[in-house]
Structure formats: C-alpha cells, structure tokens
Amino acid sequence: MTDASDVITYIGVPLAVLGVLPIFYTFLNSFLTLRNIKRSLKKCKLEATTRGSFMAGIVEVSLPRFSITPLSRTEDAYWTEATKTSTLKGGTWTLFHWNQLITSHAMQRVQYSSDLRIPQAEIDLEELYEFLLDRGAVPDVKGIHMLRVSGLWTPTGTSLMLSPDATQSVLRISLPDDSDGVLSLAVQSQQAKM
Hints:
By secondary structure, the chain is an alpha+beta fold.
C-alpha cells in the first residue's frame, strides 16, 4: 500500500526537478551567449566590458563609440579597404581605414549573441563625401535632393552616392540606431568597381 511519503517521492520530486529546468536552461543559454560574444569581440579586435546576469538571461556589453576621420591621402591605407572588417551587425564604417578616437561607450543588453551591434561612428558628412569621391563614387542627384528636402526624415534606403558605373549604392540612409537627431548612414563596399 502506498502512503503519503511515497506519493511525494514519486510525484513531487520529478515535478520539482521539472520546475528547476527552466532556470538551468536560462543559465546555460546566458553562459554560452556570453562566451560567443567574447569570441566575436576578440575576432573583431574590439575591447569591451562584458557582464552576464545568468539568472535573468541577459548579457551586458559596453562597446566603444568612435569619432572617425579619413586618413591622409598620402598614406597607402587611405586607398585600400580594411582586410579585417567587423562580422557584427552595424559598423559598415569598418570596411575602410580611419583615424579613430573613442568618444564614449554604448551599453547594450542582449539575450542572444546575434543581437549585438557595433555602435555607429561619428563622421563629418563633408569628409565622408570627399573620401568616397576620391575612391570613385559619384553623387546620386535624386538622393541628395531628397536629403535637402526631407532632412532627417529622408526615407531609409535612399542612396546618396553610387558606384562609378551608377548601378549600385555606395552610401545610403540607414535605420537610426540609438542616434536620435543624427543622420544614420551605411557604407557599402564596391572594391571591384571603385
């Protein structure tokens, strides 16, 4: 005959183990996410502060935010693309060599390593235009007109500069990523055509 202690043993203990499994899953997922983020940052040669809240499943990453300027035209690196570009989302500015100055740090809270983004870099639009013109890009008249008319409300994806054969966008408006009141741009490499 079964008594109360047998019921607790055969039913209660497995239920308690099942109740703890989500906590173990969250802990393991956070640990693996933190490991993947550290590996990605090392691969991209970025120094960042990382912290993991294993019980909450959140990983905090503090990445540097840069102010960039083009190199001098006399430097060979000015005319070449960077051999090691970032594999993380955002940061299309890593396609080229720049003078970099850390201006602040951006804190990101992510649950998955694929959510991590490189913070946008600040650059003077005139310097960026001159740099891309030196590399053979041509202005997109329609896009520049849209920028003049609409300002910060220019639609995402509007091309501002084209490849020399005018078939592909080299500089375009991108989604504003934590940059309220600032124009967000994305650079696309056209090594074969520039």
